[in-house]
């Protein structure tokens, strides 16, 4: 894990943008030690990648507000410490969230993820000429966010600017500008009496379920077009 993370760091210093899905197991759960703990995933928890969570709609058959997709991965690394670029945002979440799980379930000083989110529910895809309905997961939301960043990079290149590169410091410095803040819903975790299957919950600003939120392309382009 450390070796792979070192390679991610090299990529970040070269100005590459690395996106990874936050996973589809909520906060995760691990009880091999005899006690429940959340189980963060990797490479989603690397401090050198931009991690994408997932959202759904309150009613998939109507134009409704986005809510948390309950499978959307998120949490705090047990290996990598919290990077300085997210110190303020994560501290704000930990001090203000009314729905924190027991402190023994997660490492509050670890790298927190995801950083952003996108719709991860209800896609229709085609495989071998066969349509497959209702495909869901953060492996769907991540390429959506990646496609949006590609469009923004195209605009930057046409304007004489370099590609975005490692995005996280800028995302956190701008406090989620250009993103829709998703603040309704929680993701899943351990099925036990203390948390009753609930992990972290979304709220105003950054949270470990949907990050800073989902992309508003015109606003995000305006925010990221300049160096």
UniProtKB/TrEMBL annotation:
The keyword Calcium applies. Residues 1-227 form the Peptidase S53 domain. InterPro entries: Peptidase_S8/S53_dom_sf, Sedolisin_dom, Tripeptidyl-peptidase_I. Its cofactor is Ca(2+). This is Tripeptidyl peptidase 1. It comes from Phyllostomus discolor. Binds 1 Ca(2+) ion per subunit. GO terms for molecular function: metal ion binding; serine-type endopeptidase activity; tripeptidyl-peptidase activity. Ca(2+) binds at residues 181-182, 205, 207. Gene3D superfamilies: Peptidase S8/S53 domain. Keywords: Calcium, Metal-binding. GO terms for biological process: central nervous system development; proteolysis.
